[in-house]
Amino acid sequence: AAGTPEALAKVEGSHTGRYLSRILSGAVAGSCRKSSVVPLRFAQDDGEELARAAEEPARYHANGNRHAIHIHGAREHNLKDISLTIPRDQMVVITGLSGSGKSTVAFDILFAEGQRRFLDSMSPYARQFVEQLEKPDVDLVEGVPPSVAIEQRVTRGGGKSTVATVTEVYHFLRLLFAKTGTQFCPDCDLPVEKQSVAAIVRQLETAVKRGPLKVLAPLVKARKGFHTDVARWADRQGFDTLFVDGQLIPVSQFRKLERFKEHTIDVVVGAIDAKRILKARNLVQRALDIGRGTAHLLDSKHRLTVMSTEMSCPGCGRAFEELDPRLFSFNSPHGACEECGGFGEIWDRDKQTGAEDTGDSVLENELAAERESEWIDEEEAVPCPACHGSRLNPIARHVRLHGHTIDNFTALSAGEALQLIGKLRFRGNQKTVADDLVPEISQRLRFMQNVGLGYLALGRSAKTLSGGESQRIRLAAQLGSNLRGVLYVLDEPTIGLHPRDNVRLLETLTALRQKGNSLVIVEHDEETMRRADHIIDLGPGAGVHGGEVVVQGTLAEIEKHGGSETGRCLKNPLCHPTRTERRSLGEVEQWIEIHGARAHNLKNVEVRFPVGRLSVITGISGSGKSTLMRSVLLPAVKEALKNKRGAQRELNSTVSGAEFFETVYEVDQSPIGKTSRSTPATYIKVFDEIRKLYGQLPVSRVRGYSASRFSFNTEGGRCETCAGQGAIKL
């Protein structure tokens, strides 16, 4: 029964209804009053107190504002004991001079506190797997929701991460191909079809002539668990042998398996050789019944052959397992190309790292390859000759959906894939599945277009994306997650974005806010500030001269404030004094020239740069700016300086003018600190000079101290309690 208490009280078959009927009629209350039951009076008093408490506003909603985040007494980094009120469910921009404390407020306080409180609601067991941020130096933060940070940095995704996996498009693609795709034979290129038991028996009769075989029925395929129930079932059914992870094990000797490791288990239905060929049909039929249309043949060398009544090639008779989403995952041994391990490219590991597959498990070897792929020079890697860069094994590459394989799909750009997915039509049971999956794929592809990334190929490696592209990819992924009530903290999302695409990004941020989320954006972009609901201007200067709230409010309030440098610039935009001054290029004699650049989307580009002058590469998102600089100019000059020829030289055709340079450096958006001990002083090498200075002091010479004595990276100079870290992790 369901309904109001009065309606429920009228339902005869409900025990709750009978009790409610007595309550509503006053029978229970009346009997209690007659017997003067004290607990009831206490319960009534408590109820009145609770009712009064519910009417009072919650204490943590400061100033009576229930829809705001309140920060009290923030002293993190250079913040000077500031207090802030940040409205929720709005787009809030934090601006100010560089070093004024914007990122401290946004990331070190809001994001850190939101994440910390969310993690505190989890069990200690769950928290041990998540690295928690340090608690900020602040008196109180009220009303902060769970937070998500989308920073401006180069992605640190694994070597196998792609645009499709980061946005979760690939997750739904794998499901779509597994449920609606058609398996083709890699050898004959024919679609698989059903096969009779008689045909399977004929194949068995042919195979048994080469040696005795065991007929197996699959029970468990790559599933984690102890699987003791499987052994008990086999014992009850009268079977005496199991084939567990490649080993024949008597049922009586079966021990529970490792719980968190994948296991594959078959039951041995029987054995057959040339002398006992007559019982082949009975064994095959029973194995197919147990395996639900699939059986395995095991030869003396423990090699398995699949036999199937549902999925067999009409040309060669080869049988295939039922399609599984893991078959299309290059992060799984079920789908990854055996040659490249799912990376899509190969390199000489022995030559570059001295590494070999000597780990105790597939996982150890996989992790080793993953670590190496992060730093191995991309110029040394070549597309895998087996999978041609698709990362998948032949079986996965021969599953087709309306004539398209999954690697065909990921080779498309987001815009092209959106058009293709919109043209697909499904019928019957396939339509039922596709009706749930296709909208998920389409909306994620559409979000990519909305943030100006429709040009990115879905199969492109995530580590090749620029910092801005990486940030917008994560933004598109968050849009696809359809979360509500979340605080999104963004770090200058408009950096590197062409003005044409800026409007589309702002519309995307507006859509994120309209879903019921709060946005806090660290930004200097004028258009973003004009679209914001609320602006917080920090300053007035940088470093020790900043850390204060100059003004906060609407755009009009910021412009009216006389002490706000941001307000003055918004009201009266400045004109750079040297903007009209240009040095003539007519007197430039030295140029660096590149001919026939064809990397990525560059189409035989001819370009030259004046030596000793400032050059800017610009264009809309996806036009090839980063490709020209990072994949063409930089490696071409490096190769010319090293006086060697390689893959990039062939790609770029020719380069001239590199002889005018001694060396070349790339300043990108990668974090500069390689270890937790890195500081600004060590990075710019000034700390080396400071250590040398202290090492030359008279007292240092008397005690025999060298410059290394003043290093926190070596024994003798560093604090041994924290090993030079400056903090102890509990």
Distance between the termini: 53 Å
Principal-axes shape call: globular
User: Helix- and strand-based class?
Assistant: alpha+beta
What is CATH's topology name of the largest domain? Rossmann fold
Helical content class: 25-40%
Task: Supply the CATH superfamily name of the largest domain.
Answer: P-loop containing nucleotide triphosphate hydrolases
Number of strands: 23
Radius of gyration: 34 Å
CATH class of the largest domain: Alpha Beta
Please give the largest β-sheet.
6 strands, mixed
Mean pLDDT: 85
Number of helices: 27
Please tell me the CATH architecture of the largest domain by its name: 3-Layer(aba) Sandwich
Unreliable residue stretches: 29-43, 58-62, 350-356, 644-652
- Portion of residues in beta strands equals 15-25%
Please tell me the total number of domains.
5
Query: Which sequence of strands runs across the widest sheet?
Result: 5-17-18-3-19-20
Please give a structural write-up:
The chain is of the alpha+beta class and 730 residues long. It folds into 5 domains: 5-55, no CATH class; 57-154 and 467-578, P-loop containing nucleotide triphosphate hydrolases (Rossmann fold), CATH 3.40.50.300; 182-322, Ribulose 1,5 Bisphosphate Carboxylase/Oxygenase (2-Layer Sandwich); 591-660, no CATH class; 672-730, Up-down Bundle (ABC transporter ATPase like fold), CATH 1.20.1580. Helices cover 36% and strands 16% of the residues. The strands form 6 sheets. The chain has a 6-stranded mixed beta sheet with strand order 5-17-18-3-19-20. It starts with a helix and ends in a 27-residue tail after the last helix.
